[in-house]
Amino acid sequence: MTLHFYKYQGTGNDFVIMDNRDGRYDALTNQQVHDLCHRRFGIGADGLMLLNTQPGYDFGMKYYNADGNESSMCGNGGRCLTAFARKMGLTQEKLRFLAVDGPHEATMTGDSWVNLKMQDVDSVEHGPLYFYLNTGSPHFVKFVNDVQSLDVFTEGRQIRYNDRFAAEGTNVNFVQEQDKGIFVRTYERGVEDETYSCGTGVTAAALTAAGPETKEYRIPVQTLGGSLEVRFTKTGERTFKDIWLCGPATLVFEGDITIS
């Protein structure tokens, strides 16, 4: 079976993407997805996405983690899929699509800057040393003093596989406040390693970094793979709406690959 694929990245969070609007890739197995995402024996990616036909929307988003399993919402993936949809001829100023967590809308500024509207957040668990919330995917957020020296793989894995989260898993974000914005590093479930960036994680971190005032916020975010921005309105102590994840999404290359 020969597949035509595109490789996209958003601040270093990279994805294999295929145009599946005619259903030609519906039969992909979890093992095949895993093999395609393998960094030594495949194309190499943090995840794989299919651009699908979706009645009532401009397109549908189907997302798989690198382990081959379908997963929850991926923010950087949604931004990359929007850029891909535009390349595939969907030129509307505002694109509406359906993902696993519900409807989204997205716009583009220039050739590569994508603004993606995320779901509202109406609940944030606040413990003595952490926050826990769902921004389309579940995220554990911990603020630290020196995020760049942290062993994210070891500490993130310990939290992801602790008694509370082992069964379903969680993404784990370590956040350091800066003069302007925050620096975020993320251990992602399904990849089971640190990624260069995580869109839903960046969003979760930005929401928890907001001040006490109920107002509009615009928070710059630095990741290992580059810069993003999260815009939102804080409506209550732990409630947020009009959440936008904004940043670059670019084509790396395209090609064909034959799989068994």
TrEMBL record:
Pathway: Amino-acid biosynthesis; L-lysine biosynthesis via DAP pathway; DL-2,6-diaminopimelate from LL-2,6-diaminopimelate: step 1/1. Its main location: cytoplasm. It is found in: Cytoplasm. One of its GO terms (biological process) is lysine biosynthetic process via diaminopimelate. Pfam families: DAP_epimerase. NCBIfam families: DapF. Belongs to the diaminopimelate epimerase family. This is Diaminopimelate epimerase. It comes from Chitinophaga rupis.
